UniProtKB/TrEMBL annotation:
Pfam families with a match to the protein in the record: DUF2256, DUF3253
Alphabetical list of SUPFAM superfamilies matching this protein: Winged helix' DNA-binding domain
InterPro entries from the UniProt entry: DUF3253, UCP037205, WH-like_DNA-bd_sf, WH_DNA-bd_sf
Domain of life of the organism encoding this protein: Bacteria
PANTHER family recorded: DUF2256 DOMAIN-CONTAINING PROTEIN (PTHR37463:SF1), GSL3115 PROTEIN (PTHR37463)
Organism: Nocardioides acrostichi
Protein name per its UniProtKB record: DUF2256 and DUF3253 domain-containing protein
């Protein structure tokens, strides 16, 4: 019997590969780790997703944004936007899984589960 198709973590948006330890409960696996299971998706995470989409819709076709733009917009003047960088990247990965955006590096689409370093986000054509 072939291994089931990978899933996407509901919290961080990374790919979850099938593991033998999950064989009996694969249909119910939603998170890639205990950390993601504890974190889940917060109101701030949802706000970041909406902000990413809003910023992209304000740009001309094919334009990209940096996750920092969404982090700055959500943080406003009162908070340190740096704390929202990883949540903004997670939001982008969840939006990739939903088919709404693509993550690029150097102008090429990359796998959000393995991308390291600076990324850009654009609407899916």
């Amino acid at each position: 019997m072939p291994e089931p198709e990978p899933k996407t973590c509901a919290s961080c948006g990374r790919r979850i590969e099938w593991r033998k330890k999950w064989a009996r409960d694969w249909e119910n696996v939603r998170y890639c780790s205990e950390e993601c299971r504890r974190r889940k998706v917060t109101a701030v995470d949802q706000h970041l997703e909406r902000t990413v989409l809003d910023l992209l819709e304000q740009r001309r076709g094919g334009a990209t944004i940096c996750p920092s733009e969404a982090a700055r917009a959500v943080a406003g003047d009162d908070a340190d936007w740096h704390d929202l960088m990883e949540p903004a990247r997670r939001a982008a990965r969840r939006l990739v899984a939903a088919g709404e955006v693509e993550i690029t590096q150097g102008g090429s689409v990359v796998d959000p589960s393995t991308a390291k370093g600076p990324i850009r986000i654009r609407l899916t054509p």
